[in-house]
Each structure stands twice: as structure tokens, then as C-alpha cells.
């Protein structure tokens, strides 16, 4: 397997089970992915995939090749991180992955400051709720909201930043309406993955009395609360900074998760990564009260 580009494409098809999904992940067109897979099959003299109605499935030969290809990928990633670590210039690309809400509702002004202070560093923000693969160098640094620190991959280097809290919020307008009723109070806006409501959020409400609205991300959830539909559990750093929202009276706040900054291998040794790590740690610390739900603009005081 001399051509690493072909191997990379093969692994993407194997993992996604689809040429289209592999094309999207690699940002290559459909025909290029098919051509590289065909080149690899010709080189090895074996068929690597069966094309089924459900997608592309590895043949026995393909499954055997996959394990070897993954070893190549790991070696390639290690080599890249070591080469990256030797580059001590405060110039060039720095790819940072973090959740969209963290970018939009908390850190964008800080990231703007970093860019102004270090204009020679090309800061690339990867904003996604899906975790990037640092081992495959999809990013140099990842900031993640971690719900259980024991779930952190052992091969990554982690630095704990700060705990994050969440509360129950409703729009100020809905709370002030003369027609405000128990029915309004009990209308929940939930994310699709929510599996029931925690006990701490149920004070003074009956979650079974009104069917909830379900959305698939926190931005839609926030928009629904702003539209006076009902109430939702939201991160304090998102909702407390929104003057249209208020915490539900007599409700509590609760621990949500912990922000961690993660790197892989020797990447953390570069000046760019060390500089960014020190900068973002200081900025997150400066947001401590907001993250804990004890911001100067307390929701109950709006």
C-alpha cells in the first residue's frame, strides 16, 4: 500500500459505509473516491468492498486490509504531530474545535482578541457538536464539554478548564403575561436526545400535563424559548446573557459538565498551541461566574 491518499480514502469508505459520506468527510468528489478505491483494489489484486443496497460492506480481504491501514494511519498521525511540534513559529494555521454554543455565546470576543494579538497565526475554528478526531489531526486543539471525565480518551492530553452549570429558563415576556398559566409553565422544550427530565428541574411542575416540543439542537431550543413557547433547560452561560430570558421562579441550577482542552501527542509542545492554551485558560477563568450561573447579570434580577 504505497499510496497513502488511496489508503485514506479506503478507510473513509470503510468507516462511513458509503461513498457519498466518505466524499463529504474528505471533501472530495464522488468519482475521485471511486477511482481511488479502484486503484487500491487493482494494486492489491483483491476486491475490498461489496456494494449492497444498504451501502458498501468490507469483504474479508477488505477487513484484513483495514487493520493494516489503521496502523498506517496511526503512524502517519504520530509523524505529523511530531513534525508539527518542531515548528515553533508563532505563524501558520491553528485549528481549534469546540461546540457552536461555546463559540457563539461565550468565546467569540476572546477569539477575536487572540487573532488581533497574534495576526500571523491563522486561527481556524471548527464549530461542531460532533467530536473531532485529534488522532487523525482533524484539529490541533479541541475544547469539549465533558459529562464524565472517565470517558476522556486515554491517549489524549487533557487540561481541565471549568465546570459548567445549567438552569430552567423561560422568556421574560411569557412570565409577565397576565394569561400566564400552569399550562404555559409546564410546556417543555426538549432536545431529541433528552431522556426524561432530571429531578432538580421539576420543582413545582408536572411534566406530563402538556406534550413537549422537541428540537434537535440548543440553538433551536433557545429560539423556541425566546418565541414564548415554554421553558427549557439551558446552559447558564447561554441563557443568563440573554436579556429576553429569565430563570423559572423557585427553580434551581445544577452541574452540567466540565470544559476540557484536549491535544494529541507532541502537538501540545508547539508554541502556537501552548500560547493558545494559556490564553484560553485565562479567558475561561474570567468567565467563571457566568459558567457557574452566578453572573453579575443574574437571571432572577433581569
Automatic annotation (TrEMBL):
Keywords: DNA-binding, Transcription, Transcription regulation. PROSITE patterns: HTH_LYSR (PS50931). It comes from the Bacteria. It holds the Pfam family HTH_1. InterPro entries: LysR-type_TF_proteobact-type (IPR058163), LysR_HTH_N (IPR000847), LysR_subst-bd (IPR005119), WH-like_DNA-bd_sf (IPR036388), WH_DNA-bd_sf (IPR036390). SUPFAM superfamilies: Periplasmic binding protein-like II (SSF53850), Winged helix' DNA-binding domain (SSF46785). Residues 1-59 form the HTH lysR-type domain. Belongs to the LysR transcriptional regulatory family. This is LysR family transcriptional regulator. It comes from Pseudohalocynthiibacter aestuariivivens.
Amino acid at each position: 500500500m504505497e499510496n497513502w491518499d488511496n489508503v485514506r480514502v479506503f478507510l473513509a469508505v470503510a468507516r462511513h459505509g458509503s461513498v457519498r459520506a466518505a466524499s463529504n468527510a474528505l471533501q472530495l468528489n464522488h468519482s475521485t473516491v471511486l477511482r481511488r478505491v479502484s486503484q487500491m483494489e487493482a494494486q492489491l489484486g483483491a476486491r475490498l468492498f461489496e456494494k449492497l443496497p444498504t451501502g458498501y460492506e468490507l469483504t474479508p480481504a477488505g477487513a484484513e486490509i483495514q487493520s493494516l491501514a489503521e496502523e498506517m494511519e496511526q503512524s502517519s498521525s504520530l509523524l505529523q504531530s511530531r513534525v508539527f511540534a518542531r515548528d515553533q513559529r508563532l505563524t501558520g494555521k491553528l485549528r481549534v474545535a469546540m461546540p457552536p454554543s461555546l463559540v457563539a455565546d461565550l468565546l467569540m470576543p476572546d477569539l477575536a482578541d487572540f487573532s488581533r494579538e497574534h495576526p500571523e497565526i491563522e486561527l481556524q475554528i471548527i464549530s461542531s457538536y460532533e467530536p473531532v478526531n485529534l488522532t487523525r489531526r482533524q484539529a490541533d486543539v479541541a475544547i469539549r464539554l465533558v459529562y464524565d471525565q472517565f470517558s476522556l480518551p486515554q491517549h489524549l492530553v487533557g487540561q481541565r478548564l471549568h465546570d459548567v452549570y445549567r438552569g430552567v429558563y423561560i422568556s421574560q415576556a411569557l412570565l409577565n403575561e397576565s394569561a400566564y398559566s400552569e399550562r404555559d409553565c409546564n410546556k417543555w422544550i426538549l432536545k431529541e436526545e433528552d431522556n426524561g427530565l432530571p429531578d432538580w428541574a421539576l420543582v413545582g411542575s408536572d411534566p406530563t400535563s402538556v406534550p413537549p416540543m422537541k428540537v434537535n439542537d440548543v440553538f433551536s431550543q433557545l429560539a423556541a424559548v425566546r418565541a414564548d413557547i415554554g421553558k427549557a433547560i439551558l446552559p447558564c452561560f447561554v441563557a443568563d446573557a440573554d436579556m429576553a430570558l429569565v430563570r423559572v421562579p423557585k427553580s434551581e441550577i445544577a452541574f452540567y459538565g466540565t470544559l476540557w482542552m484536549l491535544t494529541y501527542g507532541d502537538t501540545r509542545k508547539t508554541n502556537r498551541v501552548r500560547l493558545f492554551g494559556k490564553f484560553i485558560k485565562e479567558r475561561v477563568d474570567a468567565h467563571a461566574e457566568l459558567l457557574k450561573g452566578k453572573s453579575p447579570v443574574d437571571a432572577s434580577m433581569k
